[in-house]
Write a sequence for this structure.
């Protein structure tokens, strides 16, 4: 079966894009041929939509023919721009419904109601839901909210929450089937730690954590690192975080811009916050 | 996982990946290479058919690349990167995604990651690594082949170094560079790399086949700015005129050599040589020139030393300098004047130059043979099997 998937796979890694990836992998395993069209220009895709909102709806209309099935993941920008007003929302939803009416076996995925500006309710949105063989939400809570917002008209729709197994298993059970083995636990440890690191590293604060340097002999942690690692001193207010960022700025070029933003000379910050040391 | 693989692909990391894959397969591992249909790292055009083939004992699965239509945007980000500007996360992804992408490769790995005990990604810079490395981090080994260049400072590279289950470095300076760039995965080691040892060399035959009448120094590899080729031509031109040196500059490899008219009679471009001829090119040379500052291992200097040819290398490369200092088999230069003096040494004291080269050969044989490198890879792989 030829399947057109309209939506964003990772990167960036989000629950929504990971779930769509899991669905694509499931379809591929069933022998389907999948083509991916993403609204997000950096997501993994065969093709990209030129722009969000109404242009995206029109573009999708030109793509759907020739596919046996179409999966659409709704997200800000598809089909409604995040900042769209009520009129624009209605026009986009209407246009998207018209586009999908030409497609076969449509599945619309609305992970969370917040992914569609204005929520799931309203007549324009109802047209879209009616184009779909089924509407899939993230979980039972979102499904209940969806049904609540759509109201009585939802009786004629098939609305399901996606199976939990579709979510990437980064929180797998420590003991599979009740019996823990060193191999299983270590694999989970590695998987969880890897995802933690992946989430941590892109931020500028990653270097402050110091976890990499704990293992590197000869690279002692600094005061700022120790402060961040000590549970009692974990910063809780934005001001604390700013102070730590500035304290580290003198030796972390990546943090100089924080110091500049605060209009503080790096050396001045260094002197105020690290009085025990001199250059 | 490597973006280019097979005959006709020129590149150090690509060669290491291919030889390591074949070496592990010979040791009984079931090895698959996931790669693209491209051979040229400028165009990324699909030159080979998609699908599954074999390369000796290795199964090769090729997936088609898709090139971005918006080259202007890619160039904009490229220029910002090279000028030292820092891109935000989305801009970084736009830059990575803007050259080529391989969505079918991504989907294949997504659906089949659990069938592999370990997935080795190399080199660090391309879409195939930076987009796909997050698919199964718990079984991912990154062999980054890092250079100290602006691209190495991308957040996506930091994330890759940190989130892989293990990282394999080819040299100690590369290892140290990684620690300067980012947190590095707890399981990391310097596994090194190796080169195949030719059984014999045919110096005179090579000279005759290519009608090389004068003594020459050799440059081998990609003829491009990032590898220091243009600077080498300028420095070489200054050196031979200043010191009346007898050497021609012979170059082998890929890329447009763009020889300046004033040096056309002294620079000999032999282009891409058959792999069997390459060792002879090294052996027949008076010296091997390595002008690149961007090296993570430098296979070519190992090939030169094996052929008992002295190495003259750019001091800006920590890796090559490290090899030269450890081996005592190579000279490093800081500018064109120092390069000129190095070439004078080779011209005026060939016996001493040969002595240095023999130290280099001993160094390669002691440290960079495939059995010991594969042993190190197996020790690391043991954590996954």
């Amino acid at each position: 079966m030829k399947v057109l998937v309209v939506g964003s796979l990772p990167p960036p890694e989000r629950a929504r894009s990971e779930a769509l990836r899991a669905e694509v992998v499931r379809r591929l395993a069933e022998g389907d041929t999948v083509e991916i069209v993403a609204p997000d220009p950096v997501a993994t895709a065969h093709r990209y939509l030129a722009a969000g909102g109404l242009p995206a709806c029109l573009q999708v209309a030109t793509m759907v023919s020739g596919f046996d099935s179409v999966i659409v993941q709704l997200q800000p920008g598809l089909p409604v721009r995040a900042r769209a007003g009520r009129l624009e929302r209605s026009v986009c939803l209407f246009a998207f419904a018209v586009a999908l009416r030409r497609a076969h076996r449509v599945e619309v995925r609305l992970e969370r109601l917040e992914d569609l500006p204005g929520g799931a309710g309203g007549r324009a949105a109802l047209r879209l839901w009616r184009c779909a063989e089924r509407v899939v939400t993230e979980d039972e809570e979102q499904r209940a909210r969806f049904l609540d917002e759509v109201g009585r008209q939802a009786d004629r729709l098939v609305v399901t929450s996606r199976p939990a197994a579709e979510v990437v298993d980064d929180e797998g059970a420590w003991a599979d089937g009740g019996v823990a083995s060193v191999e299983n636990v270590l694999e989970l440890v590695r998987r969880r730690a890897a995802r933690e690191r992946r989430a941590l590293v892109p931020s500028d604060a990653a270097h402050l954590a110091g976890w990499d340097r704990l293992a590197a002999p000869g690279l002692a942690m600094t005061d700022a690192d120790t402060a961040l690692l000590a549970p009692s001193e974990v910063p809780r207010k934005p001001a604390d975080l700013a102070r730590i960022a500035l304290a580290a700025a003198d030796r972390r070029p990546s943090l100089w811009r924080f110091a500049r933003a605060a209009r503080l000379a790096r050396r001045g910050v260094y002197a105020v916050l690290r009085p025990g040391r001199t250059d | 996982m490597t973006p280019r693989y097979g005959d006709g692909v020129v590149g150090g990391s690509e060669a290491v990946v291919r030889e390591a894959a074949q070496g592990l397969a010979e040791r009984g591992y079931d090895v698959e290479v996931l790669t693209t249909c491209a051979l040229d790292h400028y165009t990324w055009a699909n030159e080979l058919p998609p699908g599954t083939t074999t390369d000796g004992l290795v199964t090769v699965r090729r997936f088609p690349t898709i090139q971005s239509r918006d080259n202007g945007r890619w160039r904009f980000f490229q220029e910002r990167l090279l000028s030292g500007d820092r891109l935000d996360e989305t801009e970084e992804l736009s830059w990575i995604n803007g050259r080529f992408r391989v969505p079918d490769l991504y989907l294949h790995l997504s659906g089949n990651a659990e069938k592999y005990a370990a997935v080795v990604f190399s080199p660090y810079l391309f879409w195939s690594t930076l987009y796909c490395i997050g698919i199964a981090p718990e079984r991912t080994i990154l062999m980054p082949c890092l250079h100290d260049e602006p691209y190495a400072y991308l957040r996506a590279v930091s994330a890759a170094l940190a989130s892989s289950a293990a990282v394999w470095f080819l040299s100690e300076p590369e290892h140290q560079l990684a620690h300067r760039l980012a947190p590095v995965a707890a399981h990391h080691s310097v596994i090194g790399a190796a080169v195949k040892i030719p059984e014999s060399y045919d110096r005179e035959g090579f000279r005759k086949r290519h009608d090389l009448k004068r003594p020459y120094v050799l440059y081998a590899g990609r003829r491009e700015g990032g590898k220091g080729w243009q600077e080498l031509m300028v420095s070489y031109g200054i050196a031979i005129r200043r010191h009346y040196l007898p050497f021609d500059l012979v170059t082998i490899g890929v890329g447009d050599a763009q020889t300046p008219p004033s040096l056309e009679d002294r620079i000999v471009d032999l282009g891409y040589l058959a792999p069997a001829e390459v060792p002879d090119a090294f052996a027949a040379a008076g010296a091997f020139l390595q002008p690149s500052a961007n090296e993570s291992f430098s296979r070519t200097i190992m090939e030169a030393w094996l052929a008992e040819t002295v190495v003259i290398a750019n001091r800006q490369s920590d890796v090559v300098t490290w090899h030269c200092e450890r081996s005592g088999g190579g000279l490093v230069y800081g500018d064109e004047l120092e390069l000129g003096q190095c070439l004078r040494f080779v011209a005026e004291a060939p016996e001493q130059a040969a002595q240095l080269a023999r130290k280099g050969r001993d160094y390669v044989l002691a440290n960079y043979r495939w059995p010991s490198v594969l042993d190190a890879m197996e020790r690391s792989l043991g954590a996954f099997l």
Notes: The radius of gyration of chain A is 24 Å. Chain A touches chain B at residues 9-13, 21, 24-25, 28-29, 34, 36, 41-42, 44-46, 187, 190-191, 194-195, 197-198, 200-202, 206-207, 209, 211-213, 215-216, 219, 254 (CB under 8 Å). Chain A has two domains: 2-166, 198-273.
